[in-house]
Hints:
Layout: H1 2-12, E1 16-28, E2 33-42, E3 45-50, E4 55-61, E5 66-67, E6 71-73, H2 81-89, E7 92-102, H3 105-110, E8 119-125, H4 126-133, H5 145-148, H6 153-168, E9 174-177, H7 186-198, E10 203-206, H8 210-224, E11 228-230, H9 233-237, H10 241-258, E12 266-268, H11 274-280
Parallel strand pairs: 1-4, 1-5, 6-7, 7-8, 8-9, 9-10, 10-11, 11-12
Antiparallel strand pairs: 1-2, 2-3
The chain binds zinc ion.
Zinc ion binds at residues 99, 177, 206, 231-232, 283.
Amino acid sequence: MITALLLALQLGTPPVYDRVILGGHVMDPASNLDAVRNIGLSGGRIAVITTRAISGRDTVDARGLVVAPGFIDLHAHGQTPETYRFYALDGVTTALELELGTADVAAWYREREGGERINYGVSIGHIKVRMAVMHDSGTRMPVSDGAYRAASPAQIADIAQRIEIGLREGAVDIGAGFPYTPAATRAELLAVFRVAARTKTPIHVHIRPGVSGLREALALAAETHAPLHVVHINSAGLAETPVMLEMIGDHTGRLQECSRRAPGRAGVAAYGRAAESRELRAL
Ligand SMILES: [Zn+2]
């Protein structure tokens, strides 16, 4: 009888969570949940997602708002405390600079070692590494030899080696932008793709425009088996974008058929919001 009484008391005392987020439209891609729910958090983790009424020491009224896992932005050129603040306001909790990247990964992370408002990450960028090796006079983007001078075999080896070092220092991926390095030969691009293949690191490429630009990147990926990610394909493809998406699908299928050992994969990203496109189109 005492046990029954204790059980009744226990059942009669609903848990008080550290924080509850009430009445929000909860969207969870992992479970496909897409409905109004209450969320209870304890110890920094989600303890319950429910339609029942719950209470907590701290309450967030989310009625009329969407509650979702933090967004991961793969194409975030702004990497300052101010831009991190804006990303947070957009629901972005991880901002990655994967296209342009940096030539000095260790220094890039050191600059942020005091901590930032959201998660961040960077690529070892072919554009930036090429600027360093070719002694380009530009600051943000190549304007002289980094863009317009062919690299010697020794310089190509230097570029490939610096990219490997960047990966060891914690780069998320390899970045590249072929339109910004027009003098980079196929041999140079192959050397960069080979590093991606050897280290099983995705290479995020701003391709040259249109179907021919995509064909070039896919051929490099096919020859080396590097995992390829085509960035903002809709700005490179415009009206040709649907055809280009089909090409990527065919490429991935073909590679998986012909190489079970190390299938190369190709992925894609597209600009979402009009406001973002306006700013990023400059790159
Ligand atoms: Zn770009």
